[in-house]
Design goal:
This protein is α+β, with helices and mostly antiparallel strands. It is built from two helices and three strands. It has a three-stranded antiparallel β-sheet with strand order 1-2-3, with helices on one face. The protein binds zinc ion.
Length: about 130
Amino acid sequence: MASRSQRSAKERDARSRAVRRVAEEPLLRGSLVVMRRTCGKQGCHCQTGEKHPSLYLAVRRGRQRTMIYIPASLEETVRSWVQNGRQVDELLDFVSQQCLEQLLEQKEQALGRVPHGAGRKRPPKERPP
Ligand SMILES: [Zn+2]
């Protein structure tokens, strides 16, 4: 295992940003979708013309994927939770990519293909989200 000090500054930054977000802010792993529906009221314009837009959160609840109606008063809250969830996912994915490079390097060494310290592959130049 690489020690903390061997991690790149970008990786350390991504890790601490992810930790901070998880620790301090609510998050949701889902996405917001607008669905257009008819309301069922007789004579409403939605029967023939424009339907009513409503906001739903597409999310997994337990093992099931579900759609949850979001009233307008909660839209901003849900948006920020979803946004936070997405950013945490992106940060974790970045850390995972870095760790994967590290693993591949260690695997080459374990298989004796690369002498220690020589011919090390540089991690890809990727920007953290
Ligand atoms: Zn209607």
